[in-house]
Amino acid sequence: MAEAYIVAAARTAGGRKGGRLAGWHPADLAATVLNALVDRSGAAPDQIEDVIMGCVMQIGEQSNNIARNAVLASKLPESVPATSIDRQCGSSQQALHFAAQAVMSGTMDIVIAAGVESMTRVPMGLSSVLPEKNGFGTSKSPGMEQRYPNIIFSQFIGAEMMAEKYGLSKEELDQYAYQSHLRAIAATEAGRFKDEIVPVQITRADGTTDIHQIDEGIRFDVSLDGIRNVKLIAENGKLTAASASQICDGASGVMVVNERGLKQLGIAPLARIHHLTMVGGDPVIMLEAPLPATAHALKKAGMKINDIDLFEVNEAFASVPAAWLKTTGADPARLNVNGGAIALGHPLGGSGTKLMTTLVHALKQQNKRYGLQTMCEGGGMANVTIIERL
Known about the structure:
Layout: E1 5-11, E2 15-16, H1 26-41, E3 50-54, H2 66-72, E4 82-85, H3 91-105, E5 110-118, H4 126-133, H5 142-147, H6 155-165, H7 170-189, E6 200-203, E7 209-212, H8 224-228, E8 248-257, H9 259-265, E9 271-280, H10 290-301, E10 310-313, H11 319-328, H12 341-344, H13 351-366, E11 370-377, E12 381-389
Parallel strand pairs: 3-4, 3-5, 10-11
Antiparallel strand pairs: 1-8, 1-9, 2-8, 5-8, 6-7, 9-12, 11-12
Family: Belongs to the thiolase-like superfamily. Thiolase family.
Active site: 89, 346, 376
GO molecular function: acetyl-CoA C-acyltransferase activity
């Protein structure tokens, strides 16, 4: 079987809800990343055989196959097909898995895996709310209700359940959130995101323009006391908005090729896809799946946790990576070394390839070999991707 390689990885800097990227249509925002991947790889636009794009809220401006619309807004020719997928928060990580499987099978040689979400222009949960407002049913079917009677599937509830199950105190979660900001600040000030971020031109309300290239969610004046004083999400809970991922606008992507693709492009790869894993778990606690998924992936790959040099675990809520650390025994110094979604933002369908972009560049900067990425997903699922820097 052929190997799968990453030859280019890029992302936009995150934008706060209603912030600097609010004026960008999501298809156009995604197109800027597609164009950047073509430019960075040196590929001819017509060499791209498919675009697979993650997006969660596929409604409104993100409807009608956002991936194809992004292609039509980019420099790629009409001959390049595209498809949009929804694996909840893991959508673009799954896009990467599908792209890798395509080139490993030999059915394609050069594929772009990407993701986008404008949480300003297509608010989270909108696709669930509209059917109810129009008198239609919800996503929980009678069959699901029979299996899970009177149970509400909620990531907020799942995050609190994880904090309770793994004995995480509010102080631990606040400390974790504080660390996320400190690491993101340090990475930004040291220029560690410079090579991965695609600069985007924005227009201010007064008509002047600027270049957006710094993640807008980072709180450069962060303090632990400030985080501690944020109101709890749930009464008697442990999590607050400060220890949860930030609503975010953004796009990201990676170009994936096999050996034939490498020869066609005439470039050296950044990394090799070493292993791909996908698991399902309890849909009630929901966000716990990265824990067994990591163990499963390491076993399948014949590796131990200490064989991995850097980890990216999505910070949907601080209880997820904190519980992951407790369970895996991983070195905390190797986890989310440049900060995570608590500081940088979580653009839902765009987060999978966003994290992979950061992981690829961090491995290069630190001259490390193996990286592992995982993230929790709605419905109780998790992807795990292990890469080897080359």
